Amino acid sequence: FRSYLASVSGFIREWRSKYDMRRVIHSIKVGIALVLVSLFYLVNPLYNQVGENAMWAIMTVVVIFEFYAGATLGKGINRGIGTILGGGLGCMAAVLAQQIGGVGNSVLVGFSVFVFGAAATYSRLIPSIKRRYDYGAMIFILTFNLVVVSGLRAGQVMDIARDRLATIGIGFAICIFTSLLVFPNWASDELHVSVASKFEDVGSSIEGCMEGYFMSGNEKEKQGSNNCKNCKAVLHSKSKDEMLANFARWEPWHGKFGFSYPWNKYLQIGENLRELAVTVISLRSCLESPRQPTKNLREPMTEPCSSVMSMLAWALRELRESIMKMRRFQVGEEVLSKLKAVRVELTLLTPQTMLAPLQKDEELAVASFL
Amino acid sequence: FRSYLASVSGFIREWRSKYDMRRVIHSIKVGIALVLVSLFYLVNPLYNQVGENAMWAIMTVVVIFEFYAGATLGKGINRGIGTILGGGLGCMAAVLAQQIGGVGNSVLVGFSVFVFGAAATYSRLIPSIKRRYDYGAMIFILTFNLVVVSGLRAGQVMDIARDRLATIGIGFAICIFTSLLVFPNWASDELHVSVASKFEDVGSSIEGCMEGYFMSGNEKEKQGSNNCKNCKAVLHSKSKDEMLANFARWEPWHGKFGFSYPWNKYLQIGENLRELAVTVISLRSCLESPRQPTKNLREPMTEPCSSVMSMLAWALRELRESIMKMRRFQVGEEVLSKLKAVRVELTLLTPQTMLAPLQKDEELAVASFL
Fold this sequence. Notes:
The structure is a homodimer.
Chain A: H1 2-18, H2 21-42, H3 44-50, H4 54-64, H5 69-100, H6 102-124, H7 127-153, H8 157-181, H9 187-214, H10 217-223, H11 226-235, H12 238-250, H13 263-287, H14 295-324, H15 332-349, H16 355-369
């Protein structure tokens, strides 16, 4: 039996290292939320309260439970507001149509379905609304449509709308409970760490670039272009950053982030880092061009170049640390003056190479962070 | 009455220029689809056929009708497969649970909800599945859950599942009809045009860059950094391109695109163009650095530089044309040899500037397209 346990734990450890633990936790959380919401069917007293409307609670849990807590909260709030607005307008339209009666009834219902559906769909295509309220607009269309056409058949539109809203509320509460209170996946944490780690990526790319330049031919081939990968990942991180910032705005106060935390600053820092990554990538392709000086000419430049590069990388790492720990960047002035001194030295030494202007760029980029 | 008509048409014209016509058409299409699907409630003979299940048809239309035809088709197919799989497995689990009976019944249902829910949620987090089958997995969870818990209450699980599937099919058919047959918005067309227009963007950026360099100070300030905007837009187009290619893969044969059209090539071309954009942006920042030669020194370079730049821009425009018209790029050899000749000329002329290696890069990039 012991050997069985050992093999199981070994399997789990291996599996744990292979897959991201956060995904497994998220999956288990969703499973628990689904079981909780299914209790409305499974337990008789609960079923007698809500009846068939328990379906809406299940639907709510399945649809709004997202990986990040902020995304779940945002979708839930959108769904709630969309349901209330759509239900309210739908009830009004249904009552109005009932008072007209006859064929006019159906015509009015069809007309209102068309007008509200088309208007809400158009609003979903406007970028600023799409980014934050897309799901709410969809739910508005759905609820409005269901309520207004059900009004034709079932007498008690109000009752239907109220019961559904209540069950959606139950589903939402279950989601919030499992998503925010049990091992929450904060988008804000992820954004914070990913922005900070970009400094590291760019810094190590700069170092790798320089090492590759002063290496002999053999060593170079071994290394390959691993360093550029990091830089390219930074370059294409814009849409992910924006998504995370969008979710982070929905997230309530928690941990080190207060209310109205300036998430836009993260996007700005990301933008600057992307510009720096552009510079590093093009510096790399410059250094790889066949018009570079030969090995002998490179010798005298080795020391100042490596020193400026390692200083840049060190400065980026310090910036990363200070962002991670959320403290002021202390050594800013010092770094800047050192970088300026090295640049002057470099300019005197190698007026004929084109390294200097590019490094200047990087400095400017670094300076723009400070 | 005539003046009224004139003012209406004027209003429409103004409004048309202001908003993207495609969005308006899409909104109207959604409105029409909603009215069509509402007919199942509005028209008595139809309602007698489907009953309350018409709700599922409405839900299907609201949820799967997307802006691009490919997205609608993809979501619809995902929904269909998810419903069939979830419904089938749910029926099996429900029948199994009924045979056990008693408390074991509820326990088995709860257990299966947890296991299938968690497993499907985990699969949704795997990038390759997330990209194409995210929605299908969600619908699988939803349908499985609804069917398996309904099985506890309603006797005829099979009937429920069959009716719902039928109404979802009706909703899907209405969506496909309005989305694909009436003014379709093909994602494939959009991808084709957007990739081709990137050549134009990069080409005009190269020209603008060069013009700015040889201009006097006054003119420069007027121009600003408009050209770089295009380049940056190209740089950050990766996620949009991938989204469009993903939708385009779902789209059936239409227009000039055959079956198994190589959408990956578009992504590769986009990748190369983004690299070229990196080069242009860094060339620009090099040219703006204070270490550039003074105006007098620039004079002799003006002519060869402008000629190489305009040739590059011309080549990019030719490439754009040939992609737009889907014909072979005829003048490739010619352009390449000319570019090489100009580069040699430029190298002889200005060994001390750092323009040449950068232009070399661009050539390499251009060459990689051919």
